[in-house]
Amino acid sequence: xxxxxxxxxxxxxxxxxxxxxxxxxxxxxxxxxxxxxxxxxxxxxxxxxxxxxxxxxxxxxxxxxxxxxxxxxxxxxxxxxxxxxxxxxxxxxxxxxxxxxxxxxxxxxxxxxxxxxxxxxxxxxxxxxxxxxxxxxxxxxxxxxxxxxxxxxxxxxxxxxxxxxxxxxxxxxxxxxxxxxxxxxxxxxxxxxxxxxxxxxxxxxxxxxxxxxxxxxxxxxxxxxxxxxxxxxxxxxxxxxxxxxxxxxxxxxxxxxxxxxxxxxxxxxxxxxxxxxxxxxxxxxxxxxxxxxxxxxxxxxxxxxxxxxxxxxxxxxxxxxxxxxxxxxxxxxxxxxxxxxxxxxxxxxxxxxxxxxxxxxxxxxxxxxxxxxxxxxxxxxxxxxxxxxxxxxxxxxxxxxxxxxxxxxxxxxxxxxxxxxxxxxxxxxxxxxxxxxxxxxxxxxxxxxxxxxxxxxxxxxxxxxxxxxxxxxxxxxxxxxxxxxxxxx
Length: 489
Hints:
Blueprint (H helix, E strand, L loop, with lengths): L44 H15 L2 H8 L10 H11 L2 E9 L3 E8 L5 E8 L7 E9 L12 H17 L5 E7 L2 E8 L1 E3 L4 E2 L6 E2 L5 H13 L19 H6 L2 H5 L11 H6 L6 H8 L16 H15 L3 H13 L20 E2 L7 E2 L15 E2 L1 H12 L6 H8 L3 E2 L5 E2 L4 E3 L7 E8 L2 E7 L5 E7 L7 H10 L4
Antiparallel strand pairs: 1-2, 2-3, 3-4, 5-6, 5-18, 7-8, 9-12, 10-11, 13-14, 14-15, 15-16, 16-17, 17-18
């Protein structure tokens, strides 16, 4: 599975590990059929098997994928269902460049068809005939310089974006809404596909999409507001605020700043335990009762590892310090001053007019509602819903210092910790291309049946918002398309 840059999901998309290309964090971009390539592979056993795997994968045919599975040294570890789902998401790969080649290993660079995303594909085979595949992995890489994409003018970009959205929506690769703004005002908006396929309700600019981990931006703003007010210190351990926290190592060693930067070792809460208690977890304190006995997964501050549970704990701190529920605090101190009138986080069993139905391919042969994967309610780690227009209001309020003063706005969005995703993590924001005219910060979100991305370009004044009610990478591929062609000024 591709290990990809900015999209940080509220749910680990480990279902794709069944494809036998296992990396935990997924964000890919592709659509359409793979065209033939003129690149000639070396005549070696790994080349022959890699070529055969590409042909089977690109075919999108279950029978072909099943047939190739016998070439693995441990075929039982490589389930066709996962490979097929991964193929549906990526659309297949074009071979673009040959890398290192030996008698038992081959590395190549591939590109997702009709997408900007490049990846390194590496295969290792057993030395003895029949040269079974011992290892096959695929991870995202930066676009090689020789395949650079030219920047477009603003009018050219708008035209190209409209064509891309029309193409992807016609192929059912995108359903949702997209907005591109310049200096606070939209220069392109569009809505595509269906918000509710059963009722035949179309998506619109006012459709409320579930936003997954994009909600972490609201949590981080809320914590920095409390810091600005002198009620929270970034260097304090979380036990300073959650006095009865069950695990003493976490309580005394993990700081607020480490929670904000995913360096506290607090881990995730998604997995079998979450699945077993999904609808019982109704408050933030319910999560602490279930997971609070766990110790740190590594020495706090020693490395970066994405932690949904860490941001859950930040929500608990907001509640204890403010004396309000997390939801009321965000509504009063983020949504209201930003003018975000269509955003919220009501429980899934409550009717929310205009909230789209999420549709997923995970665990089935076709699109189906994502109802059985949704939590009872979104949390400070992710969840809730928003519109593309409300996200623009949020971006404008943030950059105009309506939510935080200039000093704390910079503190919030300036990258602090290197990540494997090619950018630095700030406080609830990813900070990419620092020190260049194309610097941008924001956050993505993705889970079954939902995907979104917000990117803010402080120097050029552009803001990108894309929200979708389909699986990743429906929205992130559109956001990437814009980022890669955006004018530099």
